[in-house]
Write a structure and sequence with these properties.
The complex is a heterodimer of chains A (69) and B (145). Chain A is mainly α. Chain A has five helices and two strands, in the order βαααααβ. With 145 residues, chain B is an all-alpha fold. Chain B has one domain. Helix content of chain B is 77%, strand content 0%. The chains are: A mainly alpha (69), B mainly alpha (145).
Chain lengths: 69, 145
């Protein structure tokens, strides 16, 4: 199974609309800060449950957060 | 640097040191042909392996799950799965290459010194730990540390 590239706006929304740190977001969704960093650098594709949690914390829909390239 | 990366680095160091000492002990003198007579070296190699596992246990104690602190998440599990698969293939290739090399070397003699069987047994675990830790680090660095 090939891994498809998923682009995301986590960094933009986190710093703009919600204004929380990577540490805070990691704490809220229950992952490590390193994973948030990897997500923002688009070097890791999150699971569906993590994607939903992030979308929920950032108060946006999955579509607004992630786009398939 | 995440705790899991630190764990992989320390594990790599421990098993690298064990590998170096195993190679030194095994290939110094005429160990291969005098394996059965060399009780001290056999015990030293066993002790070396035991030290490796003590190191693993210490790492497990240091990096075990803590209250209110997320030590690992889904990305760590994903990397762990990928590095275990890559380590499994590497170990398979290593064993295949080593046994075929021994076969070619001792084909005319008709038998392989028993010491090689011990070497395969010990090195199998070492290569497996080394390769898994190394692949784990590679995948962490590839996915932004």
């Amino acid at each position: 199974m090939s891994e498809e590239k998923i682009k995301n706006n986590i960094r933009i929304i986190r710093r703009g609309k919600v204004d929380i740190t990577q540490d805070e977001l990691a704490h809220f969704v229950g992952c490590t800060r390193q994973t948030i960093i990897a997500l923002e650098k688009e070097k890791y594709n999150p699971s569906l449950s993590l994607a939903i949690k992030i979308a929920h914390i950032l108060d946006v829909s999955i579509d607004e957060l992630f786009t398939l390239e | 640097m995440s705790l899991k990366i630190k764990h992989s680095i320390y594990s790599l160091i421990i098993w690298f040191v064990v590998a170096i000492f195993l190679i030194i002990l095994f290939f110094s003198g005429d160990t291969i042909n005098t394996w059965g007579d060399n009780r001290i070296k056999t015990l030293l190699i066993s002790a070396l392996f035991f030290i490796g596992y003590v190191g693993n246990t210490v790492l497990w104690i240091i990096f075990r799950k803590r209250k209110n602190k997320i030590v690992k998440d889904e990305r760590d599990d994903y990397i762990s799965l990928k590095s275990t698969s890559a380590g499994f293939i590497t170990t398979g290739v290593y064993i295949f290459t080593l046994t075929i090399t021994l076969y070619i070397k001792y084909e005319n003699a008709g038998s392989v010194p028993i010491a090689w069987v011990w070497f395969i047994a010990y090195s199998l675990f070492i290569v497996s730990y080394l390769s898994t830790s190394a692949f784990s680090l590679i995948y962490y660095y590839k996915s932004g540390k």
